[in-house]
Amino acid sequence: xxxxxxxxxxxxxxxxALDTLGxxxxxxxxxxxxxxxxxxxxxxxxxxxxxxxAQNVSLIPLMVEGDLTPAAITQLxxxxxxxxxxxxxxxxxxxxxxxxxxVAKSSHCHLITVPTVASNDAxxxxxxxxxxxxxxxxxxxxxxxxxxxVLVDTAVIxxxxxxxxxxGLGDAVSKKFEAEQCGRNGxxxxxxxxxxxxxxxxxxxxxxxxxxxxxDAVAVAGSGQPTPAFxxxxxxxxxxxxxxxxxxxxxxxxxxxxxxxKISGVASAPHGLQVAVGLLVQLDLESRTDGMLDELTRWYxxxxxxxxxxxxxxxxxxxxxxxxxxxxxxxxxxxxxxxDRALDTDTLAAALRRRA
Length: 356
Prior knowledge:
- InterPro entries: ADH_Fe/GldA, ADH_Fe_CS, Glycerol_DH.
- Keywords: Metal-binding, NAD, Oxidoreductase.
- It is a single chain.
- It is built from 15 helices and 8 strands.
- The protein has helices at about 20-25, 40-55, 70-80, 95-105, 155, 160-175, 175-185, 195-220, 230-250, 250-255, 270-285, 290-305, 310, 320-330, 345-355; strands spanning about 10-15, 30-35, 60-65, 85-90, 110-115, 125-130, 135-140, 150.
- It starts with 9 loop residues before the first strand and ends with a helix.
- With about 350 residues, it is α/β, with parallel strands linked by helices.
């Protein structure tokens, strides 16, 4: 199996980074599809239009609302096709960025992602998630290549509510441990190749940054005033985490997001918070003796991440049927095979019960 590493062509981060959008967009043509939700369009739309117009780039707004379903993608693509676009600019949270990826894939054009929250590592990755009409995860699709440019304005990110930032911490903290399991057990990464050492080193650096600066970064989330610690943690949550999971691979922590929503009360919990609890389940199953489970549990309490299913929104004690269903669905995820030993439903359900 060949080792494969993938990444965006360019990553730009800092307060005021959005001001460079027009000049970067102009590198790829004169007509861009602006994939964005109505709220973000109301806040940033005029600024984005002015920045692009100054560089002679016209925008065709494609509005995103609700879950990204196959029907929603069909509608967005139908709007983009006759517009003769040269590129896609996707602005907003994970759903808007995923929608931009779907449009860019069908249009065979460059993609610029502009996240407005740091709730996950979607900005750097080539994959996007589809849901059915009942809000259930349907499939994970992929662009051929990663976004061409990722533009992260930390002054914008710092205005987002702290709960989005916490979700980003939860999504990112697992990457070191999942990449370890994938690499150690012959798993494949998101490029269907063997994880290179580079990805593991990046994932290791991601964890070190989060543990060192996470609490200070959370303290200023929502203030609109990014600090050096905030800058470092945003880079860890978006760039390091994104490269770490795509090229390093995933394991139990992310596999559990397939099953955890079947536990009453958990479905509404953000993806990153589900991953955070899933990581504690994974570390429990690893039977680690290095004290890492205890260290992370203390850090979770410090920054405000959930440590139990109850803190995710579950009932006081999920029943056995729910836990078994969650375990069964999780073990069907491809990433579940990237582990030191084959897990069965009873073993995983028991680990979930210990985390109730």
